[in-house]
Specification:
With 195 residues, this protein is of the alpha/beta class. The protein has 8 helices and 5 strands. The protein has helices at 18-32, 52-58, 62-72, 90-99, 110-113, 130-144, 158-161, 171-189, and strands spanning 5-10, 36-39, 76-80, 116-122, 147-155. A 5-stranded parallel sheet has the order 2-1-3-4-5, with helices on both faces. Helix 6 links the parallel strand 4 (116-122) and strand 5 (147-155). The longest helix is centred in the last third of the chain and has 19 residues, at 171-189.
């Protein structure tokens, strides 16, 4: 059986981002469990702020088309994103909004109907980005009809959660990533019609 292809997308471009560190650990755990991992750096897919007039004049930008194709070709997408003001940060939201502009014949955003989604966040605060994750879950599930697994990774006090080499300092965080990755891959292995 072929390995499941999983995109790992950190929703932060900042150098030293806690969420980029978390995404690297998620990608490593996915590989350790046999997944075919594609790490996406959104700096390679620069997109303008979504604008309906821009879309009407020029269509969906090429970077969004490439990401759309990657979503369609993947069994799962693991988004690791910061929380901004208890919500979804602009980079993550804008990327999703542009990708969603391409729809299948039934009008459903085509890139979101196929892959399973998993979510994670690392935050300096005590809630570990939980409010942002819930906002993202709502946007994906209610707005785009995506299937998001219930398990999430939420790393609080992120300034102390990683050591100098980018590893977790707490076994609890290691276990959270392991549980979420295992749940995602287990769900991918079960056909949607059987779930």
């Amino acid at each position: 059986m072929a390995s499941a292809r999983v995109l790992v997308i950190p929703g932060s471009n900042r150098t030293g981002s806690f969420n980029r560190r978390l995404a690297a650990l998620v990608a490593r755990e996915l590989r350790a469990r046999g997944a075919d991992v594609v790490e996406v750096d959104l700096r390679d897919y620069a997109l303008p702020l979504y604008d309906g007039d821009l879309e009407a004049q020029h269509g969906v930008p090429e970077p969004a088309r490439r990401l759309h194709a990657m979503f369609r070709e993947s069994a799962a997408v693991f988004i690791v994103t910061p929380e901004y003001n208890a919500g979804i940060p602009p980079l993550t939201k804008n990327t999703i909004d542009w990708i969603s502009r391409m729809r299948d014949d039934g009008g459903i955003p085509a890139a979101f109907g196929g892959p399973l989604f998993a979510l994670g966040s690392a935050s300096p605060g005590g809630l570990g980005g939980y409010r942002g994750l819930m906002a993202l879950r709502q946007s994906l599930e209610l707005g785009l009809n995506a299937r998001v697994i219930p398990q999430m990774v939420s790393v609080s006090r992120a300034g102390d959660a990683f050591d100098a080499s980018g590893e977790f300092t707490s076994p609890a965080h290691v276990q959270s990533v392991e549980r979420t990755v295992a749940a995602l891959l287990d769900a991918v292995a079960v056909p949607a019609a059987a779930s």
